[in-house]
Amino acid sequence: MIGNMDANWNASMSILAWLPFNPLISFFILILLGKRLSWLMASVLSVGAVSLSAVSAVWLVQQLAINDQQVITVQLWQWFSLGNSQVNFTLYLDGLSAVMISVVTGVGALIHLYAAGYMKTDENFCRFMAYMNLFIVAMLLLVLGDNLVLLYLGWEGVGLCSFLLIGFWYQDKNNALAARKAFIVTRIGDTAMAIGLFMLFNSLGEFNINHLTELAAAKWQVGDQQVYWIALLLLGGAVGKSAQLPLQTWLPDAMAGPTPVSALIHAATMVTAGVYLIARMHGLFLLAPEVMTYVAWVGALTLLLAGFAAMAQTDIKRVLAYSTMSQIGYMMLALGAGAWSEGIFHLMTHAFFKALLFLTAGSVILALHHQQNIFKMGGLAKKLPIETSLFAIGLLCLIALPGTSGFYSKEAIIASLWTSATAGPVFWWCAILGALLTSIYSCRLFFLTFLGNARSSSKTEVETEFSAIMRWPLYLLAVLALLGGFFSTMLHQQLATIFASASIETNFAGEFEPHWLHIVAIATPFIGIVFSWFYFADYRQTSRINNDAAFAEKNNRLTSFCLHGLGFDWLYQKLFINPYCFIAKLNRRDVFDQIIMTSRWYVDLWRAALIANQNGNLRWYAASLGIAVIFLLGVALI
Amino acid sequence: MISLPLEHIFILASILFMIGFVGVIARKNTLFILMSLEVMLNAVGIAFIGAGSVWQQADGQVMFILILTLAAAEVALGLALLIRLQRRFQSLDIDKLNRLRG
Amino acid sequence: MNSNSVIPLEMLFYLAGFIAIVASLKVVLGKHAVHSLLYLIVSLLAVAVCFYFMGAPFAAGLEVIVYAGAILVLFVFAIMMFGLGQDEEKHAPNTPGLTIWFGPCALALALLFELIYIINNVEQHNVTAINHISPKQVGSLLYGPYLLAVEIASFLLLAGLVAGYHFAKPDGQEHCNKIAETGDKQ
Question: CA–CA separation, B77 vs B83, rounded Å?
Fold first, then answer.
């Protein structure tokens, strides 16, 4: 029995070692062989690699659950050493990483399968699947790294893949611009994070996360100035990657990429990297309670902002993008309140239902021949019944109706807010308002897209047949979304040991939770549904209005403001981009270039002088002899 | 007997040398340049003779004889080249010979 | 000649030197080639007088015979026979514009001052003409230590001769054309 366990243990280590690299091998093959591979070969290769990683992840989680030891570590090779600290390429699997790799590889494998069908007719299929695989590699490195440098490597890798995938159809200039915008905005966050890492190394001299946490607890008191700044900078990095306030402007534009990309990167995995970072570095954040409050504020404000913006959008993917932004706000809120496991749990359930929503939206878009404007959709309940019900399931989880996985995770978060030391009642009210907004915009989306009469203007038939590989991932995701609530106990077990020491003292002083908290929290989604039922009655039954133009939402200033993401793009344009362009125009002659050009001028001067000296004139040469003699005699005399 | 300070002889030589030098540089006509060269050579000769006389040795005069020889050969060659220059360019302007410029 | 004369003998040296300087100036500043040549001859003769007063009569004689009497006469013959002096109107010095003289004069004056400064800071020597250096002394030096120099000088003269003949002879084509022309006219 023991021998079997040891053999399993060793096997686990090598399985863990190969886990991130299965997709990497497939990436290289796809890049090198490219167009020579048939669609079948390429999809088998890419989907198979990720599925292999998924199966390995499941095995490893099982091993972790069985054994007493709570972590599996495998050092692949030594990277470099800096001062006294050794930075190695080490993969570290504990409960938190186990959850992350399951989500990434599991949902990733399903999305890859869907993408194989979705992008089948695209001529750059191999490049697409290669980039998707590379993304999985980078994300796995990010969550499995045991030191901050490896984490940063994965961080940058996912940023790169996001750029490549958003701008996949680069022939359209807008896509390239959106990719660039995403990269630049996340870069700002990355720079903040890098500075934070430098400061961390400067004070503690260590990159390994476990050592770091111990040293930090030993060195700094709660509320120390240094750890405050470091935590703030790390928050900056998380904010950039997770599209929270103030760096949230890139996510809606990132919907320019293909739908599987939006599902994988901008719903399930990359945008959760920030959440993972904060959860991983919870030791540091506990030492800076003010920063945790900032995290909670960022989460709360973003979820309200995104909720308002989602109510005015016209593109189906943009609604879902703002919805993602809002849900990640919930996760941030949870982390800021000290509810670490609840935040991670919501991350997992969100991955399920958001991927489901995005992929179903992809099927709808494909069915209507690449139509994305919801005002031109409608009446799909009859034509696409399966997609309609899948979408409905996803929305129910999003709204957090009782019984769905979304309910368990969101209620857990809301429940922890009132008595948290770093959050408080204000945040609880924000969360409730956010839940209300969520249900309102979800209903609006559903009514406009699926109910009422068909408004799509294209004369061609709506595609109703989808291949099996585009349906079965959706079914699986729907099952997970509905039944995910049962994972919660297992998850709490996994995460309990990690976050055991991470509980914050709840706000006592005799303040008990009002007993109506739970009732209000459960009732809110229903209130929202009832409200939308009557307010958006027009959308439900469009038989009353036949005119397309009259049907579009009134373009008042408030709606327009919300449509453009609450004016943040305009604000950043005025604040940052215009002054920068102005300065760049001032410097058109480029001061620094001119400084360097003076050396060219100097050399030119000598050139002119020397050419003038070589004029072929005999008397000039004789005179130069005379000058030379004068000069030499002068030097000798003086 | 006559006793002359050596400095005066050298000063005389220097003045004549300078006059010749000015002539070489400032005149365009090659013939005049050659003549100014003769003046310069002559000045050098004065210097040598003076130096030789100070030490009461004939070496100064030997040097002067060699300078003389040199001047003779140089004049012969110079005039021959002058004749070619005249034939080729139909003028004696030395600035016409500037093909070796940079 | 004794030093009791009214005019000291050194004055003759300075007078001869002065004549040499003035004549050289007229050589350099002249307009006509033949006039300048004649002034050059005068300058050389004055220098010969200077040589005599420096106690080198052999050198004085050589100066007159060889330099003034052979080399400059060669000059005069060449100018007159090949018509080399006929372009002087075209290339006269730019007397209207004296600017062309400023540079060279400045250069020359600078060099002159430096040389005079050097000359004045050397230890004093006097040239006494007690003993003229006789031709015999010069001759014995020439055939003694300086024998090799003499032979090499003769090489130099040979080279000058050959080159002078070679450069100055007319081109084959030109010469034939000329003879043909004169032949036709007859």
Answer: 10
| Contact criterion met (CB < 8 Å) for A619 and B21 | no
Length of chain B counted residue by residue:
102
Q: Is C50 on the interface with B (CB under 8 A)?
A: yes
Enumerate residues 570 to 629 of chain A having a beta carbon within 8 A of any beta carbon in chain C. Answer: 623, 626-627, 629
Q: In A, which residues are within 8 Å of C108 by CB distance?
A: 626
DSSP string of C126-169? Answer: EEE-SSPPPHHHHHHHHTTTTHHHHHHHHHHHHHHHHHHHHHHS
Contacts with C, B 54-73, CB within 8 Å: 54, 56-62, 64-66, 68-73
In chain C, the residue whose alpha carbon lies closest to the alpha carbon of B68 is: C67
CATH architecture of B10-90: Orthogonal Bundle (1.10)
Q: Would you say residue C121 lies in a domain?
A: no
Give dist(CA B8, CA C14) in Å, integer: 9
Q: What are the extents of the domains in chain A? A: 590-637
Q: Is A637's CB within 8 Å of C117's CB? A: yes
Domain boundaries, chain B: 10-90
Taking CA atoms, what residue in C is nearest to A623? Answer: C104
Question: Residues A110-147: pLDDT tens digits?
Answer: 999 999 989 888 888 999 999 999 999 999 999 999 88
Round to whole Å and give the CA distance between A63 and A147.
23
The shortest C-alpha distance from B39 to chain C (Å) reads 7
Q: Are both C141 and C83 inside the same structural domain?
A: no
Q: Chain C: nearest CA to A631, how far in angstroms? A: 9
Q: Which of residues 15-54 of C touch A (CB under 8 A)?
A: none
Domain boundary among the residues C92, C110, C126 is at C92
Residues A325 and A150: their CA atoms lie apart, in Å, by: 26
Q: Where are the beta strands (DSSP E) in A47-181?
A: 72-82, 85-93
**Using an 8 Å Cβ cutoff, are B46 and B37 in contact?**
no
C-chain residue closest to A626, CA distance = C107
Q: Are residues C150 and C73 in the same domain?
A: no
What pTM value is reported for the model?
0.71
Contact call for C114 and A626, based on CB within 8 A: no
For C66, which DSSP code?
I
Q: What ipTM, to 2 d.p.?
A: 0.92
Distance from CA of A630 to the nearest CA of C (A): 6
Domain with C185 in it? 134-186
Evaluate whether A156 touches A137 at the Cβ level (below 8 Å): no
* CATH number for the domain harbouring residue C16: 1.20.120.1200
Is the separation of the CB atoms in A99 and A491 below 8 Å?
yes
Question: What are A539-580's pLDDT values in tens digits?
Answer: 776 554 455 444 555 667 778 888 887 888 888 888 888 999
Cβ contact C28–B36 (<8 Å)? yes
Residue-wise pLDDT for C45-94, tens only, equals 999 999 998 889 999 999 999 999 999 999 999 888 877 776 555 555 55
